[in-house]
Design brief:
homodimer, 232 residues, 0% strand
Amino acid sequence: MASREEGKQRRRSEILRAARDLVRRGDTAFTMRALAEAANVSVATPYNLFGSKQAVMFAVLEHDLAAYARAVDDSAVPVPEVFFRAVDLAAEHYGRDPDYHRSVLFAAYNDGGREYRSLFAGPGHALWRGMVARGIDEGRLAPIVHPDPLAASLEQQLFACVLEWVRGELELEELVLRAHYGFALLLLGVVARAEDHSALATRLEALQARLLARWAARSGTPTPREDAARTG
Amino acid sequence: MASREEGKQRRRSEILRAARDLVRRGDTAFTMRALAEAANVSVATPYNLFGSKQAVMFAVLEHDLAAYARAVDDSAVPVPEVFFRAVDLAAEHYGRDPDYHRSVLFAAYNDGGREYRSLFAGPGHALWRGMVARGIDEGRLAPIVHPDPLAASLEQQLFACVLEWVRGELELEELVLRAHYGFALLLLGVVARAEDHSALATRLEALQARLLARWAARSGTPTPREDAARTG
DNA sequence: GGAAAATTTGCAACACGTTTCAACTCGACG
DNA sequence: CGTCGAGTTGAAACGTGTTGCAAATTTTCC
């Protein structure tokens, strides 16, 4: 009854389920041995099916990304507002279970071996590219702009912020401020309507004020170093 | 004669020299045991003095960053041109010994444990902040802009590109194009002079064309996935 | 000069990702 | 039904970052 391929598929999703469970239960840095046990497979199986621990975490990430992409699509917000909304949704998403997301992202991007997938590559880039394309279609972004490079810039800006959050360098709230600020700056030069331009400029100033206030409140530098100072 | 602190210092720099040597000689993923031997210390000493392998690599990075900062400062280029020049210098710097820099950055940011320092934090952020501040002083950037957030956005944009290059996802040439594109976009909204604005717009279009040509030449997607496709 | 304190050393040990391999399981197929 | 073979299993082993610890070494201080 269960074909060979079905068996593989079942094991694959069992492993992913187990991985999610382990992280969510607090075993954020689970062992491959623990994962194998939790998924009722031998320790060699995840390697057969995914290739590495990192690859397993990428698969978990991809699964979560789908839910995020749906949420962004569902929030029928116009360009350029939708970009900011997308950041908010990501932050909300992360904030709902910070340890979980931090761990998954960390395992995917920091523990990792040599494998790599840009955070928003594949389905992710499609999401951003789609938003930009819509903006051009609807005449909210200058028609000279091409979706791919602008989307890439936005992704890069957000990616850097997310990575800093994952590493514990940033509060979620500051992640949002920084990403919004970067987005506002990036978009300022490419929005088509004068009203959008001035709205962005206003937003930019407000964001800058909030960022400065935040940094001033903690010693004046944007990225305080709390490391062990034993590095010569 | 050799005070306790001097001895420590000597060991510290011996370890850093050994680390640089090993990477440069091609042993890009050297062992802590190999490092200890090359530095003529016991394997425990790097842990006493730095704390972890990652911390050693951070120290190497910091050393290299100083040379880079000097190069940028020496290139007496006006704002906003200097930002682009800074990217060029970084790429030149990396291009001179790609394997070395890739390995050091990789070890610092991807192998790593929990420690973290933003790539441009500390001396790095000072460099970017300084360029932005100069731009404001010289009236090339809108006076409403504050150095810290703009510098942070530029750093984030570059950081994301560098990270992709380190992971082997990007050619050095594309790193430059992408960073330039992001920079042009970020700066477009904040340059004070009309001539700078139109120069940036021109540059932006040229960059976009080159990026699109590049991506078109290889299947149409900006970030092709060459991964093992065994991820379900 | 000698005790005391700080560090380094050598070495064994641990944890964990990953690999290897022979035995085994079980669907596929004639 | 019987054989084949892709894929899984279990267990052992490896490599490497990291730690612990007692002994040795070196600086400091009286």
